[in-house]
Amino acid sequence: MSLIRKTAAELGSMIADGEVSAVEVAEAHLGRMGEVEPKVRAFLHVDHETTIEQARAVDTRLRAGEKLGPLAGVPIAHKDIFSTHDMPTTAASKILEGWRPPYDATVTKRLRQAGLVILGKTNLDEFAMGSSTENSAFHPTHNPWDLSRVPGGSSGGSSAAVAAYEAPLSTGTDTGGSIRQPAAVTGIVGMKPTYGGSSRYGVIAFASSLDTPGPFARNVLDAALLHEAFSGYDPMDSTSIDAPVPSVVEAARNADISGMRIGVVKEFAGEGFQPGVLTRYHEAVQLLESLGAKVVEVSCPSFTIALPAYYLIAPSEASSNLARFDAMRYGLRVGDDGTRSAEEVMALTRAAGFGPEVKRRIMLGTYALSSGYYDAYYGQAQKVRTVISREFEAAYQQVDVLVSPTTPTTAFPIGERIDDPMAMYLADLCTIPSNLSGNAAMSVPCGLADEDGLPVGLQIMAPVLADDRCYRVGAAVEQALESRWGGPLLKEAPSL
C-alpha cells in the first residue's frame, strides 16, 4: 500500500520505528497534491520547501531521541483561518489577501509541538461563512467524489484534502456545522469538540460564542489522535475550559457500545430529507441496536427553530468581530490617496474586501443588534438558545448520546444554491443545535445514497465534555460497516 493510503496512526508508527522518514511521507503527499490539486483545488497556499524543512526537522528530533507524540511526522492540511506566522492567513478573504500574522494560533503551535508537518493552508468559505466553500474569495473547491459538486463548508478545503488523499489529517472550525457537514458530504470523519475544549486563540473570529476548532480524518482513531494533540486548556483563550481532555483515543479503541442508550432525534428524520440519506441513517440506527445499544426516540421540539435563532446570533457576533477589518491597521486598504477621510477609506475598503455573503451577514447582525430591534431579534434568539440547551440536558437524562443524519441531503451541485441563501442555510439544519448548546458532536460515514452514490453522514451528539462518547459510538459504527463493506468507505472513492 502506498504511503498516501496509510492511516495517520500507521504513518506515525512507521516514522517512529524508522521504517520511513517524515521527509519521505511528506514527499509522497506533495506528489499526490501535484496529481489531484488542479482538479480538487483544496488549498490556498502550499510551500513545498517549507513542508520538507518541517519534515526534516522532525526526523532530526527523532534521531536525537526526543520523545514526540504518535502523530510526529504525519502531514496535515491546515484551515486558512488559523494564524500561522510563516504562511499567509487570509480566511479566504480579499481583505486579508497575503497577510502573514506575527504569531501562531494555539492549535497551530500545538500541531508543531506534536511534530505534525503542515502541508499548507486550505480553502474555506470567506471568514467561515457558508456551507459549500463557494464563498471563498479565491476559488471554489470541488468534492473528490464528484468534481461537479461542493465539498461542504465552511471547511470544504480541509474535508476535500483528506477525502482526496492529499493529507491524512486536517483541521477545521465548526460554528454551525462547518466540520460535520463537509465531513458528511465527502465521506470522512469530522468532530466538533465541546465548546471551550479546543482553543480559539489565533483563530480569525466569526462568531465567538460558537466557533470551535476540530479534526478531520479518514477514520475515527486518527481523528481522536489529532483531537488529543491540539485540545486542552489554554490561558490565552478566556472561553477555554480548565479541565482534562476527554479520553477520546481510548474511546476510539473501545468500540463496545452494548448497553449504551442511544436517542433518535424525532425532529430530524422526516420531510425535507433526501430519501437516500434517510435510508442509510435508519440502517445505521438498526446497526447500533444490533451491536447491543438500546435505541429510543427522543423529541427535542425547539431544534426545529435552531436555524433562525442561529442566523440572528452568529451574524450579530460577526458584525462585531469583523469591525476590526477597517483598513487602518492591517490588510487591504482602498482609496487612500491623501484626499479621502479615514471613514471614506474604510467604506471603500470594506466594500471591495468583503464578499456578498459576508456583507449579508454583517448587515443582518447589525440590524439585529440595532436600537429598537435588539430585544425582538437578538434577545429572543438567545432565549431560544437557552431552551435548546435545556432540551439537550433533558434528553441526556434519558440517553447517553443522540443521533441524527448529519445533513438533509448529499453534496449538491456547485452553483445550485449560491443565489438562494435560505436553501444554502438548510444544509446546517441538523448541526446547528449542538453549536448553540456547546456540546460535542461528530459525523461519521454511514454509506452511500442510492440516488447518486454520494456519501451520507451519521451525526452523533454527546453532552458537554463527553466527547469520548462520540468516538466510542463512531468507532462502533465504523468497524461494523467496514466489516460489511470489506474495508473503508473511501477505498472506492472516484479516481482522480
UniProtKB/TrEMBL annotation:
It holds the Pfam family Amidase. Keywords: ATP-binding, Ligase, Nucleotide-binding, Protein biosynthesis. GO terms for molecular function: ATP binding; glutaminyl-tRNA synthase (glutamine-hydrolyzing) activity. GO terms for biological process: translation. Heterotrimer of A, B and C subunits. Belongs to the amidase family. GatA subfamily. This is Glutamyl-tRNA(Gln) amidotransferase subunit A. The gene is gatA.
